[in-house]
Amino acid sequence: MGSVHIIYTGGTIGMVDSPQGLVPGADLAGWLAGLLPPSRPPAPGLEALESTSLAALEPLIDSSNATPESWQSIVEAVRAHAADHPGEPIVILHGTDTMAYTSAALSYALAGMEAPVVITGSQLPLGAEGSDAEANVLGAVRAAVSGRVIGVALFFGGLLLAGGRATKSSSWDFAGFASPMAPPLARTGSDGAPWEWSENHGASGASTSPTAWTEPRPYARHDVVVLDMAPGITGARLSALLDPLPEAVILRAFGVGNVPSDEPGLTEAIARAIRAGTAVFVASQCHQAEVLLGHYATGDAIARAGAVGTADMTLEAAYAKAQFLLAQGLAGTALAEAMGRPIAGELSPRR
Ligand code: ASN
Which family does it belong to (predicted)? Predict the structure, then answer.
């Protein structure tokens, strides 16, 4: 593996101070040229790296401004590069705020692609003292050229995670991402020590899923709403939040997927949405969760109404998957059924 292609999309990594707060503006190309071979003796794992190319997307964004259309721009940039350089590893530099949504979205849309894709960013700008930018970029490039990543992965704070399994776990810690329901694909050792690869390091598994789309339709902005339950929510409030009806709802419920079943009109509001053709998914507010509707009476009523649990998917994976499946033309019951089938390793097989 002699080369890597880097796609820069924005995020704190390339930001500089301004009177309005952090904005894109750092000399990322110059910084990368100084960081990666041949200008520096290669960092461990990069001995075979001979050349790097860089493309920047327009406009560079804070990832809080990302939309499904932004995911599609990245998909197209990756595909365009892969068409001319088949199999060449790709690293994506991205803001951390919605990086886990993007990594899940890319893992569905790029499932089956030969080239490994590793996404990263940083908590501090590359020019800030003690920044995590250098360690994260070197780690992402090392993972990308390792020959061991299948599909899309996310590297951050010493962990390599499957793209569809990651979640942002801290707004400030350098260990900013976690994979609560799947082991990391690899962990870095300290000071150049060898990485520890997990046995299922190919678990991003994009090329292996029989249900993957080989030529998916592009992401577009579909009306998917994420709603949180909280003690005291009323049926009237939930009904109002669902009017007009979205194409899909992800209800972030309690524990294994419980909602307040004693609350008049609340289960009925969910059932009404499903009858009208909206797919209703039940996720959990727990950081680490497997949704099991029907385990308690409080989850059973909505399951009988046709709501479908998101199993052990992260919210990010479930949201991006709902957007992906809607973009493929699925709706209602077909969408609900497809949610339970893995596309790119985002979901554990049912035990
Ligand atoms: N707001 C930034 C972003 O997501 C946060 C970061 O990159 N650390 O673009």
Answer: Belongs to the asparaginase 1 family.
pLDDT tens, position by position, for the chain (351 residues)?
599 999 999 999 999 999 999 999 999 999 999 999 887 888 889 999 999 999 999 999 999 999 999 999 999 999 999 999 999 999 999 999 999 999 999 999 999 999 999 999 999 999 999 999 999 999 999 999 999 999 999 999 999 999 999 999 999 999 999 999 999 999 998 777 789 999 765 544 444 566 688 899 999 999 999 999 999 999 999 999 999 999 999 999 999 999 999 999 999 999 999 999 999 999 999 999 999 988 888 888 899 999 999 999 999 999 999 999 999 999 999 999 999 999 999 999 776
* C-alpha–C-alpha distance, residues 58 and 73, integer Å: 9
DSSP helix/strand/coil, 24: strand
Retrieve residue 149's tokens. Answer: 């990543």
pTM for the whole structure: 0.96
Instruction: Give 61 Cα–ligand 1 centroid separation in angstroms.
Output: 9
Which residues have CB under 8 Å from 263's CB, separation 6+?
233, 234, 235
Ligand 1 midpoint to CA 96 (Å)? 5
Q: Is the CB of 136 under 6 A from ligand 1?
A: no
| Dist. CA 171 → ligand 1 center (Å) | 9
Name the residue at shortest CA distance from atom 7 of ligand 1: 95
Residues annotated as catalytic (active site), given as ranges: 12
d(CA 8, CA 29): 10
CB of 128 within 6 A of ligand 1: the answer is no
Q: Is 163 in the pocket of ligand 1 (CB under 6 A)?
A: no
Ligand 1, pocket-test mutation among 17, 61, 63, 122, most atoms within 8 A of CB: 63
Residue in the structure block whose two tokens are 């996404």: 119
Q: Which domains does the chain have, with CATH numbers?
A: 2-197 (3.40.50.1170), 224-339 (3.40.50.40)
202 lines ligand 1 (CB under 6 A): no
